[in-house]
Amino acid sequence: MSFFAILIALLLEQARPLARSNLVQAGYRAWTVTVRSNFDAGKPHHGWLAWAMAVLLPCLIVLGIFWALMELIGWPLAMLWNVAVLYVTLGFRQFSHHFTHIRDALDTGDEFAARQSLADWQQVDASEVPRSEVVRHVIEYSVLAAHRHVFGVLFWFSVLSALGLGPLGAVLYRMAEYLSRAWSRKGVDGMRAPTSERLQRAAGKAWYVIDWLPARLTALSFAMVGSFEEAIDNWRVYAQRFPNDNDGVILAATAGAINVRLGGESLRRRDAAYGEEGDDAQWEPGSDVTPGRGPEMAHLRSVVGLVWRSVVVWLLLLALLTFARLLG
């Protein structure tokens, strides 16, 4: 059931991508604002209580619907529920339009449009970024987005679905990732009051733990479909030099897999709600520079190939596991 649900959801998302402003995301954003305003009292247990309320309650609702469909109607409707949840949580088209706009602008020599698209995508100041640095940032943001929107969701959905928990893993992963950003410093949830340090710490620690294994599997898959030895060597030497350890593993492996120099100065983040400039958030992958060729347009095509080959590897592995289970 898991393999076919993933395949159908990916095909659906390619044919008809989810609108950027949709009721599901708007509803969850409103829910997290409500939880934060009612439970963020600044004490350690309040941070974890708020995180659990924001993440686990929606997860339990999704799981309850899955179990009810399985028990009362049967697996066909339960699989359709899996497809519906994956359609919301999984997919390239949730971020690939940013990549496409920037690549097309650079192809036509319109560097101003490319910088503007990068700034709009990441809410950063990109007005004075050189062309090569635009390419570098696009590579970094794109591989991290591919991991968070595709590979991480695939991992947790597959693992928990195999345990009979349906689409719980996909929802858990995407919600944890969103809260790590929304509750980081000022956040993006539309509240002017700063998030308490306890709440920031709880959301950050939970996200680190949940993303630890998927990040390393994504890096391994990039190494397998790219230049394996260079990717593993970069992973071993340079991953710890990035501010976020999980992101560093992915970026270091990517740099080695396609022989591109990644890392360096981060872009300054703008506050999405108030147009202010602020400190770099965890989403910013600045670091020491990895070895490799300077970022070029050819590397953007290499990134696309790297990601799609990795998707094929993951799907083939899931297909083999599915057929082995059916035959067994």
From TrEMBL:
Belongs to the CobD/CbiB family. The keyword Zinc does not apply. The gene is cobD. HAMAP family: CobD_CbiB. It is found in: Cell membrane. The keyword Nucleotidyltransferase does not apply. The chain crosses the membrane at residues 48-70, 77-95, 153-176, 306-327. InterPro entries: Beta-lactamase_Reg (IPR052966), Cobalamin_biosynth_CobD/CbiB (IPR004485). It comes from Comamonas guangdongensis. This is Cobalamin biosynthesis protein CobD. Pathway: Cofactor biosynthesis; adenosylcobalamin biosynthesis. Keywords: Cell membrane, Cobalamin biosynthesis, Membrane, Transmembrane, Transmembrane helix. It is a multi-pass membrane protein. Converts cobyric acid to cobinamide by the addition of aminopropanol on the F carboxylic group. Pfam families: CobD_Cbib (PF03186).
